[in-house]
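Problem 12. The chain below contains 226 residues. Write out its predicted structure in token notation.
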Amino acid sequence: MNIIGSGNVLDTAVALDMERVCYASTVSVLGPQGMYGDSLATENSPASPMHLYGASKRTVEITADAYRNLYGLDVVGIRPVLAYGMGRYTGGMGGFNSMIRDVALGRPTVLNMTKDLSSRIQLIYNADMARAFVAAMVGPSTPLSLYNAPVVDTITWQDVINTLQELIPGARISHEAPSGGWDTALVDGSAAQRDLGVIPQTDFRAGAAEMIALFREQESKTFPVA
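Solution.
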């Protein structure tokens, strides 16, 4: 679906002389952090996807560049990091959002996305991620055809737990190590910040606090929240 569907979109854009195409790639096109040492991966760092999803997205990136070079199509992609927020409760980040919902509603919950709570991750609130896509779609043409998400903060999984327990004292969050887990490179988001003019406004503490308030508001319309 990623490869064939994206190819159809690009073909259609050329045929209809569309002004621009903006698409979502993923940081999963990159390899594990060990490939890059202590450095943040840039848009020029070598890709090395570790699963089929990342490989399919990398194929889309290469195809999009070909359309840009061969047909002059104005096409730009963004590689989201771990984007969290209201509205998604299935798939890769669905469990993360559901964990925050559990905390908000006083339920015991599990963090099961990593083997090592000390490993570092990059989160971006969905509103900030959306701002980047809007800027890429309707803003001026960009010098690059591909951007890492405009991330700023790097935290650990333990920081996630600690922050939620600070926001909700007594929150019951246990850790279960998965068979796989998140092991994708940390990225440099400065190019997107510079060219798209988007700097994330919401750190994890603020984003989680907003989600907790919204979950409680939703629940209170049906059931009282302790």
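Discussion. Residues 12 and 18 are 8 Å apart (CA to CA). Students who got a different answer should revisit the alignment rule from Section 12.3.
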